[in-house]
Fold Activator of Hsp90 ATPase AHSA1-like N-terminal domain-containing protein.
Amino acid sequence: MAKLGEADERWIVEDRQDGTNVRGWHWSEKDLLPWSQDKLGELFENVSVDASAHGCESLTLRGVASCTGEAYLNTRKGKRIPGYELDVKVSYEAIVKGNKVTGKLHCPYLADENADDDAELKALPDGSGDDDEVARTATNKAGIPVAQKLFAQFVKDFADGGPFADGAVAPKKAPSSAPSADAAKSAASKPPPEPARKGRTVKMTEKFYCRPNDIYNTFFDEGRVQTFTQSRAELTREVGATCRMFDGQVEAVNEEIVENKLIRQRWRFVNWEDGCWSDLRIELSEPDGPGNTVMRLTQTGIPEEDRYGNNVVDVVEQGWNERYWKRMRQIMGFGA
């Protein structure tokens, strides 16, 4: 039993006048149909498919033609409960004997209840000629496996919380445009806020079977980072410029860059309080000889919580370990 005044914070439900659902304790439901439409649109935008073995000079998934149904995310006691039933049509375009033909790849029922199964799909040509039939067959044979992987990625992202996944931004309740007299009086009587605390520190030492330039280049190579994080990245080596990772949910401003040796940045999740940044320092060396790189990471000034009351330090540590080091070793081949 906890001592008086030391109750586990997970069991404390605050009465918040600002309407904030602290730590996702109260039941809430978010409409994720707009997010689902946008996410599927990103995944299926101009995806090339190799269908040369099936009579097509080219085959491209051009984007989502329609996405209807419902999609929502329920939260209760900190647990996320996703739900969706979607009817999705993806446009395809093929070149057959020099002729362009089009059609739709139809997924009539994408639902949380069959999340572990491959999406059921069927090609529907816009025309009825011989070239349309060639493209239809090619899309069924070559396009469907590609589309199923993209739908599987959507299902995973949805299960992780969609736009409310760790590190993502959750919308705050809009403030009233005209606060009441009592609220204004209360605000005026409050003392000025205390200075921000120094913050927490994360330190890591990792060993990789590669050269320091391999690690250094990977941090600034958009293609590599997007491959092992499975999310968009905007990267630059320019000092003073901003890098963005994980679809813009992480921002970093380059402070000092020494090729193959040092990366120093101001670093934050966008759901931290405005103006709150941590200091990131990554040092690379080969103390045991070529091919055995030691990376030392020190990150200071990490806030205790984000603006919604969620723990930050654990998210940062888990993110580096699971989303960076583990995947760099597995996908880039940098370690045991």
In short: Residues 305 and 311 are 5 Å apart (CA to CA). Residues 198-332 form a domain with the Alpha-D-Glucose-1,6-Bisphosphate; Chain A, domain 4 fold (CATH 3.30.530.20). DSSP finds six helices and twelve strands in the chain. Helices lie at 33-43, 130-159, 181-189, 212-220, 222-229, 313-332.
